[in-house]
Amino acid sequence: MTPVNRLRPRRSCLAVPGSNPRFLEKAQGLPADQVFLDLEDACAPLVKEKARHMIVEALNEGDWSGKARVVRVNDWTTHWTYRDVITVVEGAGPNLDCVMLPKVQDARQVVALDLLLTQIEKTMGFEVGRIGIEAQIENAKGLVNVDDIAASSPRLETIVFGPADFMASINMRTLVVGEQPAGYGADAYHYILMRILMAARAHDLQAIDGPYLQVRNPDGFREVAGRAAALGFDGKWVLHPDQVGIANELFSPSQEDYDHAELILDAYAYCTSEEGGAKGSAMLGDEMIDEASRKMALVIAGKGRAAGMTRTSKFEIPEA
Questions:
Q1: Pairing relation of β-strands 287-289 and 282-284?
Q2: Region of residue 15 (phi > 0: left; psi between -120 and 50: alpha; otherwise: beta)
């Protein structure tokens, strides 16, 4: 099996109702890193079957250049899941990057999806293992089991936080998704987000924050997305075109940080080389850098490169 690169840019993950032809068409022209065509909450029960075929047509005939193409199916507690997967993957497998599984509660549910995808790929003659899985954590049981979920399948690419269902599952006292509940003086989501982030990083997965439903409140979105970006999340769901640019900005490094990271990598490569004296540490301006600095710089530089950033600084070999 050919190794698959699972680390795709996902700064902005745009939700698109699979039953809305206008939205399916418009999404193709938006600068989101990922688009997921939704068969779950965004589709009423009466139109789910029709939406499957609309998604297949959109994937096969649309222009999704530069975007990760994902379909969110219904969760395993419903009777729609298996037919969602079979119809979409058999119909558009070569034009599909990932299947998103909502309301994941334990590792077995991811394993079941993996097995079904493998059977379809073998039956259809598709490359086995190419299609990835995104697991959405939306209740207390899923969070408790998130480590096992993160280790459940080599297809797994991301762990995604689903705040609305999660808030309901733990009886959080608020009706505004993403906002802090009244009466609690700290960040009510910090433990949840860090728990997801640790599980993801322990298994080399990406961590994605869920949606902010007040789509006409860009300042609120910026604040909430900024918190997730500061923690180290790779991206956030966006529900409206106006949120795409903000997410792309916040989950990319600043130009200054990107330039600095690239300089650290160049300086460390030089100082550890024979020409640079084969030293384990060196000075970059007033800053001492070493192997730990290199690892930190790799993270920032990697995010910048994935975002298509161009450096504006150049490393100069220090004078003897």
A1: antiparallel
A2: beta
**pTM for this model (two decimals):** 0.91
Contact between 281 and 271 (Cβ < 8 Å): yes
Query: pLDDT 10s digit of each residue in the chain, 320 long?
Result: 444 667 899 999 999 999 999 999 999 999 999 999 999 999 999 999 999 999 999 999 999 999 999 999 999 999 999 999 999 999 999 999 999 999 999 999 999 999 999 999 999 999 999 999 999 999 999 999 999 999 999 999 999 999 999 999 999 887 778 788 888 888 999 999 999 999 999 999 999 999 999 999 999 999 999 999 999 999 999 999 999 999 999 999 889 999 999 999 998 898 899 888 888 887 888 889 899 999 999 989 988 888 888 999 998 888 76
Question: In the 3-class helix/strand/coil scheme, how is 229-260 assigned residue by residue?
Answer: HHHCCCEEEECCHHHHHHHHHHCCCCHHHHHH
